Structure to design on (115 residues):
């Protein structure tokens, strides 16, 4: 079974390997969906939503919210941020990480399911 939780964080960035408006400093309200996979346990859950929330907040939201993402990435594209979020969560979750979806705008997003 798949279980998902969504989060938002605000951050600024500029793309160092892009020529156009996005090479200038600008900000986004990012939307993040983290999906895990596993069997339903004896407690009736795959994972406790609260446990997932605490972990994502600690490993991702607290790190990137209201930050300049260029302090963490050479070229903070949505693709590279999603891969890093995957790596930040992969070994910390009590169940299998299935997917990370990161929206940069309301209608532009990337999906990552591991290498």
């Amino acid at each position: 079974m798949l279980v998902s939780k969504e989060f938002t964080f605000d951050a600024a960035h500029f793309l160092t390997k892009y020529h156009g408006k996005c090479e200038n400093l600008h900000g986004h309200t990012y939307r993040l969906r983290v999906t895990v996979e596993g069997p339903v346990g004896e407690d009736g859950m795959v994972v406790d939503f609260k446990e997932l929330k605490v972990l994502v907040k600690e490993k991702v939201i607290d790190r990137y919210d209201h930050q300049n993402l260029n302090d963490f990435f050479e070229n903070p594209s949505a693709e590279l941020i999603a891969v890093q979020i995957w790596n930040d969560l992969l070994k910390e979750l009590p169940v299998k990480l299935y997917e990370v979806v990161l929206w940069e705008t309301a209608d532009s997003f990337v999906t990552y399911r591991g290498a």
